[in-house]
Amino acid sequence: MKKIPFVVIPALLFTLLALTGCTTLRDKPKISSNDELLPAEVLELPNVGDLTLKEMETGVWIQMDPDSVSDISLLTKPKDGPYRLGVGDQLEITLYGEGDAETRRVLLIDPAGNITYMLLGTIPAAGRTVDELTADMRARIRAKLNYVILNIGPVKLGSQTFTVLGQLNKPQVYPLQGRTYLLDAIAMAGGPKVGVIRDVSADIHDYAHATLVRGGEVIPVDFERLVNKADASQNIEVLAGDIITIPSALERKIYALGSFNNPQGVQFASSQTSLMNVLVQAGGINTAVGDGHVLIIRGNTANPKVMLMDMSQFDTKKARVFKILGGRSMDITLQAGDIVYAVPKKFGFFRDVLKQAITTFGTTLSGDVAREVWQQKIDPFNFGKNRPL
Q1: pLDDT at position 48
Q2: In what order do the strands lie in the sheet containing 243-246?
Q3: Rg (CA), the chain
């Protein structure tokens, strides 16, 4: 019997695998230079969020679906439950007595969440519905007076508010009066700002990176589809406490967030910058809390492209170039608006990391824009410490 040469066996196995059509991230050829990485295809993989970071391939762009970015059910979650009173709400309390006697008083819910009414003293009001407060006060007043009727009606409900920030004509806090939707909120804020460049009107808002933060979490709204394509599925109801932020398209900034020693928004110093440059400006990865992975998020925050990089072999002593584990690339050229997130050690699954990265970006962006609005009000000419009194 004729023996098969040993060198032929690996070739036969490779051919057999190719014929089966089984492909994974691991089957992609290694990238040896940045020139090969930039035009690389964007992969659309099912259930990619279920993979662990160790199972993810580095240096490959993955197109994420909204389900992996956040809880898509929040887009259609209705506003449920009755209105609950809060600090700043005004109530009209009417007391009817014998002989058609009538007493009316308008009371404001104080910062402690209470109201003070005649013989009843201090009564807790914040967090309760109008019906609950009415029943409580009726029981209290009947213990002191006979043949009286007490009614409560809202005069002004100012405790329920939402905030609009960024490139809109009237960014501020607005009262939530009745059912309000995202397009309503943008219209209330005067619509998007329009800049003038060389006597030509131009849009200066960035809908791709616009965010809606609710309860500390970014809701996956595609503002580009909402405004430019009139997609009603994105026109969700605004709830109390929501923060809507429309960033500027003129601000060339990359957000380096997560487990960096100095997380910050990195401003472009030239026409382009690299991952290496951003890592240096952010003070490098804090090895005490970071696991060595870096996530690059690009494009629409509701449906972004994402690339995972492994920085565990970054040689800080030689300070020349860094190696990605597996030898995938020399460096990555970043774009304005990119999010670079140094992954904390506590995360294992790709979906959880991505959600946290988007949420961190949304809350950081809102805070930065709010500070800019506040700064413009107290120091519009940016005098700084030399501001005249």
Answers
A1: 76
A2: 172-175, 161-166, 243-246, 211-214, 217-219
A3: 29
What global pTM score does this model have? Answer: 0.67
Q: In this structure, what token pair is assigned to residue 236?
A: 């969700």
79: CB partners within 8 A, 6+ apart = 179, 237, 239
Q: Which residues contact 358 (CB under 8 A, 6 or more apart)?
A: 69, 70, 218, 297, 301, 304, 339
**CA nearest 308: which of 280, 279, 342?**
342
Give the three-state DSSP class for 291. Answer: strand
Q: Is 99 left (phi over 0), alpha (psi -120 to 50) or beta?
A: left
* Residues 6 or more apart whose Cβ sits within 8 Å of residue 48: 56, 62, 64, 68, 350
Query: How high is the pLDDT of residue 87?
Result: 83
Q: What is the dihedral of CA 319, 321, 323, 328, to 10 degrees?
A: 170
How high is the pLDDT of residue 34? 47
Give the total residue count for the chain: 389
Using one digit for the tens of pLDDT, what is the confidence trace for 295-350? 899 888 888 888 888 776 554 433 223 343 334 445 678 888 899 999 998 887 88
Other beta carbons less than 10 A from residue 12's beta carbon: 10
Question: Side chain identity at 165, as an amino acid letter?
Answer: L
Q: How far is CA 314 from CA 141, 156, 238, 308, 331, in A?
A: 73, 59, 44, 15, 11
CA 21 → CA 8, 29, 40, 57, distances in Å?
Answer: 21, 16, 21, 19
Close Cβ partners of 229 (under 8 Å, ≥ 6 residues apart): none
- The closest alpha carbon to 338, from 316, 312, 357, belongs to 357
The per-residue pLDDT for range 282-298, each reduced to its tens digit, is 888 888 888 888 889 98
Burial code (b: 16+ CB inside 10 Å, e: under 16) for 292-325 equals bbbbbbbbbbbbbbbbbbbbeebeeeeeeebebe
Domains of the chain: 24-70+251-377 (3.10.560.10), 90-156 (3.30.1950.10), 161-246 (3.10.560.10)
